[in-house]
Specification:
single chain; alpha+beta; two-stranded antiparallel sheet; 2 helices; 11% strand; elongated
């Protein structure tokens, strides 16, 4: 059983005030882009807009556990593509041309 004993180093400093904090206030899906406002020392505000580069793919956390970098994802997908090209598969939306034949009514 864990106990939540705080170490002296883990305590929040007095100058940090989270009394008006709101959880998830700035949460937005990353694929929609985001902007950052940076206040300069002279009082001006610089606004930077960021969007994901074309072709960027976001992995779910459970999938991300298995891939350490882009190269490993690409290698896995290439091997999957190779397998699908070797195995004759049935495409969605098409009728199978199996051995089932229906007799014409006379």
């Amino acid at each position: 059983m864990k106990t939540n004993k705080k170490k002296p180093d883990d305590e929040i400093r007095a100058e940090y005030d989270f009394s008006k904090a709101e959880r998830g206030k700035f949460y937005r899906p990353l694929d929609k882009g985001y902007k950052m406002q940076v206040e300069q020392a002279d009082g001006t505000v610089v606004v930077n807009h960021y969007t994901l580069a074309e072709g960027t793919v976001l992995l779910a956390p459970d999938v991300r556990e298995y891939f350490s970098d882009s190269q490993s994802v690409n290698d896995a997908l290439r091997s999957l593509i190779e397998l699908t090209e070797k195995v004759p598969g049935r495409k969605y939306g098409t009728q199978s041309s199996g051995s089932h034949q229906v007799a014409d009514k006379e």
